[in-house]
Amino acid sequence: MTDLRARIGSVVLPNPVMTAAGTGGHGAELGAFFDLSSLGAVVVKSLCAGPWPGNPPPRVCPVPGGMLNGVGLQGPGIDAWAADDLPGLQRSRARIVVSIWGRRVEEYAEAAERLAGALERAQVDPEQGDVVACEVNVSCPNLEDRSRMFAHSAESTAAAVAACKVSGLPLWAKLSPNTPDLVGIAGAALGAGAQALTLVNTLLGLAIDERTGRVVLGAGGGGLSGPAIHSVALRAVFDCSAAYPEASIVGVGGIADGAGALRMLLAGASAVQVGTATLADPLAPARVLAELRQLLEAQGIASVTEIIGAAHRSGYERPGSAEVAGA
User: At the top level of CATH, which class does the domain 6-51+73-207+224-325 belong to?
Assistant: First the structure.
């Protein structure tokens, strides 16, 4: 049987499959479909310090190869989440990754500080496998840098990550693929204290209704996710893994089956997140985990760590490797 344990920075998970922020709710919603503790971790929808209304409707739109979303990071805020949603997640015995965001560096710091306080009041002990990490979502608007995102600037990314150290949790930096300097920005995040990189967030996109000639989403453009961005995410993971071979990477983008998860691991990811596929099939994260386990066990791979980054070497050095690599 394959040892599926995954290490992301200082965090050790029982397996490398997680949900992705924004696709599984703020709490234990997916627990109605499968045992949340069976996953490596559950990543909650991104939260800022206080409540945030998000964008006007419509907020989602199906497009060829995936979907566009312009939800706008709607959320209840850290304190309300800790009071209303955290207890259910704790009862599920899931390992929890809290995603936070802000419009200014000070807002990241406030969200991280509020998170630390909320977890202290809830008597959460990360060493007991409860809330295990804080994912710093820098792929959102940056009012200090006008229309740009934090993740489009190495300096802004580093400042946001550093501001979140007050959370007291291991930090993972979630980065944007919408920049030609992703590798440099990834280095800035790691240099500022991120233990891992989450690669990637959505691609910028637009939908227009050909019948009316109008833009579909209420906020105008949106983020493209789903199978259409899988190759983009795979390239981001591969490039950052090549540049920072000792860094932990969480691969996310268009993973809908075990083969997609396997490709991310081969590219250099230590773990993966399943996102848009969950919106169509709430069982998708559990199914991806089961399929990944089957693929690895079919090849007699003793530990998932054996295949991390294999695409940077010579692939599998074992019989049947071609079938797995092309699955």
Answer: alpha beta
